[in-house]
Design a protein that fits this description.
With about 725 residues, the chain is mainly α. It is built from 29 helices and 13 strands. Strands 1, 2, 3, 4, 7, 8 and 10 form a seven-stranded mixed β-sheet that branches. A two-stranded antiparallel ribbon has the order 5-6.
Length: about 725
């Protein structure tokens, strides 16, 4: 976020005698600025409140789960200060010098950010595993170019990106939002000023037109925020259009004629303290379950506006703090000291936390708090030796192009580092092209081995090395993207109906239907092979994150109740009931959407009842192990010791409640088959991440497509023995 500090020294210029009457210079409705250009120490202290709230939230201090609203406080402050700065210049000079404005922003904000980005790029090469390192370098690029929020939007809304660790630069989303706002807001005001330049009462004309434009933007952005909070929570939280209204609220504080209102002192006290209490209430009362931003964001946004408004000088006033105002408290020495440090502290605290956990493992809140406090040291150093010298440098500030050159350099440095480290890491990990599954060794149809007796897994689908020697297949970079080749038929959370999604012998009257969530979708390649070998078609009806049992769940991607799942499930069952009868229905679903076995059993029965009415054989593939951690990332850091990436059996392979009920005959009309005996063999405490050089998982829960292909002969045997598929015709496939 932007933390505008006290104005730096300026080059002295000789000014022509003013022809403006004294009354107009003092700040009436046509004079320079309604709120004058005096430094507001209370706002510097308000920054301290905002940054401490964010730090408490990230440190996971109990009872302060709503500290994320500190970002909203910063947005309002930025809107107020930046708009006031631009309007003062417009009213005083008749124009806005965009070169000067962006030069000031560049030299004050970008160098400190560049130091952090460069440090993260270098530290990431030491503290993170190779696959995570490549993700991090992409984050550095996006952050340096001020588009980090859109990169994180794409990741947060992508169900298939599940299981990846949090980025050390995730907090740069708010910096990107602010930079994008500046790039839009300053030119817009400059255009408005051009049209109002000839107005007789230029101050009133400029402020009136800008206030009207701001009001329209606030209403439109707030409406969009409400819509996205309901339908796309990541867009609502991280997207610039849904955050503009908060800057706009701050802008209206700078534009409207509050300076003409004296207001009784008790009303000012109530306004200031009421806002402060509301901010504190949000920090304590809000948590991860609060739909945000949405309506909930109104409280911290308007509360911040109230605190700022309480100390705006009225007509003839110089100081309205008073001995009991909240501004008096915020203007104290300690809040102001933290406020001055807030920008660099915000920049440093999150990378320190995330990289510490990358090295030490998960930390509790006391340790997270200690690491957060440790971030004060690099923050102080950056402020002392980077931010302040550049802000105060007469050489840099004398000409706008010098400040812009500093900003460009601050972008180029981390970008260059990210490209160098990222390219070296990609070269280290090997090819990223998809694995040629036709070159994979045959899988074993039975027995304890994953591969057949003569099977070997070579690099990128080639063969020639003995099992256990050489690189894993797919390599970690390939595994991350080793999805079933189903052409997007695993429909996204916001979609309510699957397309036809027919594969193989699409004109055949016989077809296998693959039905369920993404844990059903991981069996696409084996089921397509089995169907094709018999001259059948395969139809895939799969929805991401949607339990096949009829359960009410929330979608992390949508940030609310997963209504689309219910609609999709009903539609899929209706299509099976009213369409041609399949030869076989294969179902699978994660059984972790609830821990209540009775509720789960009832939910399964609600789905299986109409499914049995279709009249086709039904086979349930038992849930596969869920490692619970990013397996490709782990293996990338231990290519010669993949055993270090083994995960606990008890949590990964709990008893499958539906398979257990099928085994005792409690679920008529459904057969069950399982492959966990080969995915997690034996009865030891752990399950392997790699077997016979086959990397089994593409994330923290799903099989790689390579592993699924290798399991095809075993899956076919189990279906045939269960009477669910006829023996393959001789000479086929």
């Amino acid at each position: 976020m932007h933390f505008l500090l006290a104005p730096g020294p300026r080059r002295k210029r000789s000014a022509p005698p003013s022809t403006v009457p004294p009354a107009r210079r003092s700040g009436d409705e046509s004079g320079p600025s309604p709120h004058r250009s005096t430094f507001r120490p209370d706002i510097e202290g308000l920054r301290a409140v905002a940054v401490l709230a964010v730090l408490a939230f990230h440190a996971e201090i109990p009872g302060l789960a709503g500290g994320f609203i500190g970002v909203d406080v910063f947005f309002v402050i930025s809107g107020y200060l930046i708009t006031g700065l631009l309007v003062r210049e417009a009213v005083t000079t008749g124009r806005i010098r965009l070169g000067d404005f962006f030069s000031r922003r560049a030299r004050r904000l970008l160098p400190s950010a560049a130091v952090v980005l460069a440090a993260v790029a270098v530290a990431g090469a030491w503290l993170t595993v190779p696959l995570r390192r490549t993700d991090l370098e992409y984050d550095v690029l996006a952050s340096a170019l001020s588009v980090a929020n859109w990169r994180f939007v794409s990741q947060q809304t992508d169900y298939l990106a599940a299981g990846q660790d949090q980025s050390p630069l995730l907090h740069f989303w708010s910096l990107a939002v602010e930079e994008q706002f500046y790039l839009f807001w300053a030119p817009l005001l400059a255009v408005v000023v051009l049209f109002a330049a000839r107005a007789v009462r230029r101050g009133r004309a400029v402020r009136s037109v800008v206030a009207l434009v701001t009001g329209a933007l606030v209403l439109g952005s707030f409406a969009l925020s409400l819509h996205w909070t309901e339908h796309a929570v990541s867009l609502a939280y991280l997207g610039t259009p849904s955050r503009v209204w908060q800057f706009g609220v701050g802008a209206l504080l700078a534009l409207l004629p509050w300076h003409l209102l004296r207001g009784p002192r008790p009303l000012r006290l109530l306004c200031g303290w009421g806002g402060a209490v509301a901010i504190g209430w949000c920090v304590v009362a809000y948590d991860a379950s609060t739909p945000y931003p949405g309506l909930a964001a109104l409280v911290p946004t308007l509360a911040t506006a109230a605190v700022i408004l309480a100390a705006i000088p009225g007509r003839g006033e110089r100081n309205v703090q008073g001995p009991y105002g909240v501004g008096r408290l915020l203007a104290g020495r300690a809040p102001r000291a933290i406020g001055r440090l807030s920008y660099t502290l915000y920049l440093w605290h999150w990378p320190v936390l995330v990289l510490a956990e990358a090295r030490l493992g998960a930390l509790g809140w006391p340790a997270r708090t200690a690491w957060t406090l440790a971030a004060v040291l690099p923050a102080l150093a950056t402020m002392r030796w980077v931010e302040q010298p550049l802000r105060r440098s007469r050489t840099v500030s004398e000409l706008p192009r010098r400040g812009l050159a500093v900003g460009v350099s601050a972008i180029v440095l981390p970008v260059a580092l990210a490209l160098v480290v990222g390219t070296a890491t990609l070269h280290l990990m090997g090819p990223t092209t998809p694995v040629d599954v036709k070159g994979l060794p045959p899988g074993a149809a039975s027995g304890p081995s994953l591969l057949g007796a003569s099977g070997t897994a070579g690099d990128s689908g080639t063969s020639g090395a003995s099992a256990g020697d050489g690189p894993v297949v797919p390599n970690p970079a390939q595994a991350r993207k080793d999805f079933p080749p189903d052409q997007g038929c695993q429909v996204a959370p916001e979609v309510t109906r699957s397309p036809e999604c027919l594969f193989g012998a699409v004109d055949s009257p016989d077809r296998i239907v693959l039905l369920g969530d993404s844990h059903a979708g991981q069996w696409f390649s084996p089921m397509l092979a089995i169907a094709s070998q018999r001259g059948w078609a395969l139809q895939e009806l799969v929805k991401q994150g949607c339990p096949l049992p009829e359960l009410d769940v929330d979608s992390p991607q949508l940030g609310r109740t997963y209504r689309e799942c219910d609609v999709w499930r009903t539609d899929a069952l209706d299509r099976l009931r009213t369409g041609p009868r399949p030869r076989l229905i294969v179902i699978a679903s994660l059984n972790r959407y609830t821990e209540d076995d009775e509720l789960l059993a009832a939910a399964w029965e609600k789905t299986l009842r109409p499914l049995r009415a279709v009249g086709a054989p039904i086979v349930y593939i038992e849930a596969t192990p869920v490692p619970g951690s990013d397996i490709p990332a782990c293996v990338s850091g231990a290519p010669d010791g993949a055993a270090a990436c083994a995960f606990g059996r008890a949590d990964a392979v709990p008893a499958d409640p539906l398979a257990r009920r099928i085994a005792v005959g409690a679920v008529p009309g459904v057969r069950s088959i399982g492959l966990n005996q080969v995915l997690c063999p034996g009865d030891g405490p752990t399950c392997p991440a790699v077997r016979e050089r086959i990397l089994l998982y593409r994330d923290d829960a799903h099989l790689t497509n390579v592993a699924a292909v290798v399991l095809t002969p075993r899956l076919e045997r189990l279906l045939t023995e269960a009477g669910m598929a006829p023996v393959r015709p001789s000479g086929s496939g």
